[in-house]
Amino acid sequence: MDARASTARAADPNRPLTDAVALAATRDRRRIVAPDMSRSVVCGSPGYSICRSRNRTGIVKKSEEPARSMRACGARAVGGMTTPTDGGSGRGRSGGRGRGRGDRSRGGSRSSDPKVRLSKNLSQILRHGVVDEGLVDCLDAEGFVPLARVLALPRFRGIGADEIRALVAADRKGRFELRDRTDGTVHVRATQGHTLRGDVLDDDAVATRLTRTSGIREAVHGTSMRAWERIRTHGLSRMRRRHVHMATGLPGDGEVRSGMRNDCEVAVWVDVERGMAEGVPFYVSANGVVLSPGEGDSGIVPARLFLRAHRIRGGEELPL
Known about the structure:
This protein has helices at residues 3-11, 17-28, 114-129, 147-151, 161-170, 203-206, 225-234, 272-277, and strands at 48-53, 56-61, 75-78, 81-84, 145-146, 176-180, 186-190, 208-209, 218-223, 236-237, 244-246, 266-271, 283-284, 290-292, 300-301, 306-311, 317-318. By secondary structure, the chain is α+β, with helices and mostly antiparallel strands. A four-stranded antiparallel sheet has the order 8-13-14-11. The chain has a four-stranded antiparallel sheet with strand order 9-12-16-17. Strand 13 (283-284) and strand 14 (290-292) form a beta hairpin. The longest helix has 16 residues, at 114-129. It is globular, with a radius of gyration of 23 Å.
């Protein structure tokens, strides 16, 4: 056993052998294979800690705990992002794939595609992680932060401004927006999907408030059959997000870019015009997503504003 590992083992006789070897590896900054592991771990700096899952021992960045620690077991750091060393797909214990909302993960994306990983990591920071990552001091009311500050974060190590520009230009859903300031700096934001609450953002600055002359009289929210049973009674909740998200049409309709997932089963149409008349605010984001914080402080678009609902496949009408 490595001398450092022996020392760690002697300091705590109850520590499993795999922990001792992993601990030595974090100090030596080298690739190791723990005795009961089938994959190797790359340790790039002392700022790593150990995570275990069943019979595996992995090493993760302390800055990425706790959200990613158990998922990162047996993974290696690549450009500030995590990817399985054995070509794994990032599936869970049961072998099934999750719902795919990688931007919801506070620890970053597990996708094997570098461009997808970059997109999801950028989404996670700009939509959800500004406060946790220490960027709130440079966040403006529109949701923009300096791109240089974002790229200075560990998960974007090795990523340059040109790669971000290419990502934004290629994103068909328009999730991000770049702005060149007169002082020569470049700022970036997510166009919608924020979970930040309170006055750190200004809805009227982030998006455009709809009025009766805006031309959007109705909007559609996509959901599942299971969720519909509750929605039809209690209304549409913004959940953890800042807004309820809606689209101006169904996926594939005309110029609809975003606002509804392709795997949604039910379309719920909302009377935007009536809602505005009754004091419920509605906005449209830079990428065409209709947003509403809900009625008052409830965070809910009330069911009384529903116009109709139907299955997306087949068009079967559903009772309101």
